[in-house]
Amino acid sequence: MHFLVTAGPTREALDPVRYLSNRSSGKMGYALAAAALAAGHHVPLISGPTALPAPPGTTFLPVTSAADMDHAVRAALPTADVALFAAAVADYRPRQVASHKIKKNAPTLSLDLERTPDILGSARAAGFRGLLVGFAAETENLLPNARAKLLRKGCDLLVANDVSQPETGFDHDDNEVTLLFPNAPPRHLPRASKQALAEIIVGVCSQLMVPSPP
């Protein structure tokens, strides 16, 4: 099957030298790409800027901004069977990008921000009918917030993790997640390496793609 994976952060330019971004390292997304490859699938990997080498065998598509990622995803979705949106896409970007470096002339600076494209939320409207997998990084009310996102975005599976916990989540090699489904109880996956969790998640996706017997 074709497992489309997004990974890493996006960078939203403020001026030629500064940008807005987040703490995503890309490790979870890259682990998912490697796990899908090891399972024998074709893997386009659309990644924001990271310090990680692309897993050998992926069709690697580097992007920078949320708009870049949105364009790349829309081009890749028609051939995808499974779409795992693990990237930490910026929710907002500057409405206007300064053409020159913003100088430190005033004691305060206000930024006018606008929403970025909702890549996960627009997948169904764009015609994607495969298995849609979202990710939710939360700092409070993990399961209620994640379930609301699962339903709002039309996901078949949502992977939720509490990024406020020490030694898991952003920029760590380990994670602890809960898998949420539209019509089944949540499944908690205790702390393990991101690679081990990725292998479980890819296996769950493969199971969900197999039609139930009549």
Description:
This protein is α/β, with parallel strands linked by helices and 214 residues long. It has one domain (3-93, 113-209): Rossmann fold, CATH 3.40.50. The protein has helices spanning 27-38, 66-76, 142-153, 194-209, and strands at residues 3-7, 12-13, 19-20, 44-47, 59-62, 82-85, 92-94, 113-115, 131-138, 157-162, 174-181, 184-193. The strands form three sheets. The protein has an eight-stranded mixed sheet with strand order 5-4-1-6-9-10-11-12, sandwiched between helices. β9 (131-138), α3 (142-153) and β10 form a beta-alpha-beta unit. α1 (27-38) crosses α4 (194-209). The longest helix is centred in the C-terminal third of the chain and has 16 residues, at 194-209. It is globular, with a radius of gyration of 18 Å. The chain starts with a strand and ends in a 5-residue tail after the last helix. The model has no long low-confidence stretch (mean pLDDT 95).
- Mean of the pLDDT scores? 95
User: Which structural class is indicated by helix and strand composition?
Assistant: alpha/beta
CATH fold description: Rossmann fold
Oligomerization state: single chain
The CATH architecture is 3-Layer(aba) Sandwich
How are helices and strands ordered from N to C?
EEEHEEHEEEEHEEEH
Using only CA atoms, what is the Rg? 18 Å
The count of DSSP E runs of length 2 or more, i.e. the number of strands, is: 12
Query: How is the main sheet built?
Result: 8 strands, mixed
**Count of runs of 4 or more consecutive helical residues:** 4
Number of domains: 1
The dominant shape is: globular
- The low-pLDDT segments are none
CATH superfamily membership = CoaB-like
